[in-house]
Write a structure and sequence with these properties.
One of its GO terms (biological process) is regulation of DNA-templated transcription. This is Ribbon-helix-helix CopG family protein. Pfam families: RHH_1 (PF01402). The chain is about 65% helix and about 15% strand. With about 60 residues, it is an alpha+beta fold. It has one domain. The longest helix has 26 residues. The termini are far apart.
Length: about 60
Amino acid sequence: MSNITFSNQRSSTLPVVLPISWIDRLTQLARERGINRSALVREVLQQTLFADEQTHSVDNKDA
């Protein structure tokens, strides 16, 4: 499986390496939503990280 490095050159963040099939799907989703692929990737990563933080805070409350 081929991978492609996807990064926003204007930011100081680390590049994200994704399979090409994911990039194709992200491009399709971005077009459907009328936003660019970088914005979609940022949004997905933020939602994923935020969801992970919520999971950890719930776990910590139970401790």
